[in-house]
Design a protein that fits this description.
Blueprint (H helix, E strand, L loop, with lengths): L11 H19 L2 E4 L4 H12 L11 E5 L26 H8 L3 E6 L11 E2 L3 E2 L15 H9 L4 E5 L6 H7 L2 E4 L20 E5 L2 H11 L29 E4 L10 H16 L3 E3 L6 H26 L6 H9 L5 H21 L5 E5 L14 H8 L3 H4 L5 E8 L6 E7 L5 H14 L13
Parallel strand pairs: 2-3, 2-6, 9-10, 9-11
Antiparallel strand pairs: 1-3, 4-5, 6-8, 7-8, 7-12, 11-13, 12-13
């Protein structure tokens, strides 16, 4: 199983050169990259030498992997999209980056993001407002907007993002790529600037679902250095690829999730649901599990954890933060302890309810976002973030995996549309079973945006 996709006939060095040429020609308008790692070309050359010598390290050897800029890469700046971290050089690789390097991956770019991962638009005032490769007047989503845009634009084969509430799945949907929020605790957070540690995950992104599955297997590892890390007893992410879907029980989360869905987005999702039924899946019932209340409690937990992490700077140097991010973090300083406890209790019962629901379901399908891809709306992203995350945050309170799968383009705007697939805890394998089967039957994921040069 190789994951070189369209570049399978090229050497790693040739693909590095092509990706760099695209970056030079386009990123003045796209702003998907914060730091291009020029020295990584030698890593591509080393991968080519191993291949010639028959010493390949596996399917990731020589693959170009972009890294969201809140994840440490040794010797390279980790800005996390914040102006006050512009000179923050990482002393060592994050655990997930170390795993990638051990398997021969070429880590070649640090990718743009919303400031401190607080926002779903990636309109970053310090490092450039990232745009959507399919329409430069539109946002790429966030907070891993640079990761989604860089894959769509051809800068990377694969990318890592982080997802606290929506930050991998929303940019994946808006940029037409595959993005996984894995089961909580399965990929190490060591060496990653936290947003809200009890909700943070490292997500994998790619054009093809099979590639995202291989990348997921590469970074899912128990890590004693991460206090939030947990061992997984689930099947490998690639283990069910190629198996038929007949007999899978699929729930469609229509209540709340389909409220106010844009007509064009809804049309594309209904076509996908028809394909699923045609594959022999069985429709199961999705009872109310409290999704409408999840946003309130997710927000409270995340704001409190974020405020706790940034408390000293918020009180001593508030001007270091953009007004939007400062406002959201500061709200966490004023939350009564009893309200936080109430939200933590809600999360516990909510997860239990979902666990019982998945006793009878293999998969739950819902939209990723309810709107078409939004136009750029200025630096203050709070309103757009609220709209984009409304139906994604409920799955962030779940302990299991959620995947955004590109399923076509809006019939009127032509923008990408994604669908959300969610499974029980540690069952990433079922998500990739469905996603790869769909991509084998369709060609949406093979289309590429055309970006005018800068």
């Amino acid at each position: 199983m190789h994951i070189w996709g369209d570049g399978a006939s090229l050497s790693a060095t040739e693909r590095w050169d092509e990706a760099h040429a695209r970056y030079v020609a386009q990123d003045g308008r796209l702003h998907a990259v914060i730091t291009w790692i020029a020295g990584s070309r030698s890593d591509a050359e080393a991968a080519d030498a191993r291949r010639v010598a028959g010493r390949s390290r596996g399917p990731l050897d020589g693959v170009l992997v972009g890294i969201k800029d809140n994840i440490d890469v040794a010797g390279i700046r980790t800005s996390a999209g914040a102006s006050f971290l512009a000179h923050n050089t990482a002393a060592e690789d994050a655990s997930v980056v170390r795993l990638l390097r051990e398997q021969g991956a070429v880590v070649h770019a640090k990718l743009n993001m919303a400031e401190l991962a607080w926002g779903a638009t990636t309109q970053n005032a310090t490092y450039g407002s990232c745009r959507n490769p399919w329409n430069l007047d539109c946002i790429p989503g966030g907070s891993s907007g640079g990761s989604g845009a860089a894959i769509a634009a051809g800068y990377c084969d694969l990318a890592l993002g982080t997802d606290t509430g929506a930050s991998v799945r929303v940019p994946s949907a808006l940029n037409g790529v595959v993005g996984l929020r894995p089961s909580l605790g399965t990929a190490s957070l060591h060496g990653i600037l936290p947003t809200a540690p009890s909700q943070d995950t490292v997500g994998t992104m790619a054009r093809r679902a099979v590639d995202a599955a291989v990348l997921t297997e590469a970074v899912v590892r128990y890590d004693r250095a991460d206090p939030y890390s947990v061992p997984t007893d689930g099947d490998r992410a690639t283990s069910r690829i190629g198996k038929p879907l007949d007999g899978l029980t699929v729930g469609i989360a229509r209540r709340f999730f389909f409220d106010d869905v844009d007509g064009g987005v809804g049309e594309v999702i209904e076509t996908f649901l028809g394909w699923l039924a045609g594959e022999g899946t069985v429709t199961g019932r999705v009872t109310d599990f409290g999704a409408a209340e999840a946003h309130e409690h997710w927000t409270r937990i995340v704001q409190c954890e974020g405020a706790a992490f940034h408390r000293d700077r918020l009180t001593s140097r508030p001007g270091d933060f953009s007004p939007d991010v400062r406002g959201r973090l500061a709200e966490g300083l004023d939350v009564p302890a009893t309200d936080l406890v109430r939200s933590l209790q809600f999360r516990t019962h909510y997860r239990r309810h979902l666990s019982v629901l998945f006793d009878d379901l293999d998969l739950i399908v819902s939209p990723v976002v309810s709107t078409d891809v939004p136009k750029v709306g200025g630096q203050d992203s709070r309103a757009q973030t609220l709209a984009l995350g409304r139906i994604t945050y409920p799955w962030a309170l779940h302990e299991g995996p959620s995947l955004s799968l590109p399923i076509g383009f809006h019939p009127r705007s032509g923008n990408p549309v994604g669908v959300s697939l969610t499974a029980r805890r540690f069952d990433e394998a079922t998500l990739f079973q469905v996603a790869t089967a769909y991509q084998a039957a369709t060609d949406w994921h093979t289309r590429r945006p055309v970006i005018p040069p800068s």
